[in-house]
Amino acid sequence: MSSAFPSLRGLLEMRFEAARPDALAGRVDVVFTALPHAASAPIVASLRKAGLTVIDLSADFRLRSADAYTKWYGPHPAPELFGKAVYGLPELRREEIRHAEFVASPGCYPTSVLLPLAPFLREGLLETGTILADSKSGVSGAGRTLEEQYLFAELDENCRAYKVGGSHRHVPEMEQEASVLAGEPVRIGFVPHLLPAIRGIATSVYARPKRKLGADDAHAVLAAAYRGERFVRVLPPGETPSLASVRGSNFCDVAATVDERTGLVILLSSLDNLVKGAGGQAVQCMNLMRGLPEEAGLVEAPLVP
To answer: Disulfide check for 241: which of 182, 199, 229, 270 has CB 3.0–4.6 Å away?
Structure first.
């Protein structure tokens, strides 16, 4: 392991081996699959057939509509398992995850949008026809992709939008889960941006309330919803989330206010796309599934500076 990831030298000397379901059965409690979409599904299918508990970090099992999956990703490689996974956002689906043997870990952008938005949708406080979300992500969201736009000389001191016009593949995932929370169809206009940073996502959500809300009201909605949550930190009124405050941690910082001039509710969040947006959230799900303390292995202070 340390030859591929030198930072783990002296900490983890395990060796890679072929992922054969028959060889894994009886040796492991949970399997995490972290392959690209379409590549993950056949492996997951063989693991589930062998009776193994699986937490999948790809997009292959997050959606509920087969038509939506086909539209955004193409034919599903394991249709017999489609729709069988529990959506793995603990703050929204804790009890389902606790009793699950197959979990689809959410995307990083949807996590950053849904966590500040969910309490308002559950309470029926927002108009659902058009909710706007703007996210800015560090480059690690693309993994080790070798493309011109990710080169240091192209990215440094730069910021740009990409996959605009509703073309990002996380849009149907956001709308699916938002619609479940609201109990009615929700449409989300989403614009992602690439930041000259390694990790982190900063998200702003703009929505029109069904009735007049003040800044104190908006803050109270978040505070009530996430009171007692270990990894969602509701910031005091007047404070806004920052990437530096969550980098390297499983925390998602959220805040809410209202633009008194326009009446818009403004919801803000920041998280580390590699932790609460990916691996950390998957471990949080595993802890729930195996009856461990939910924060086991996850309470690390953010990396500041």
So the answer is: 270
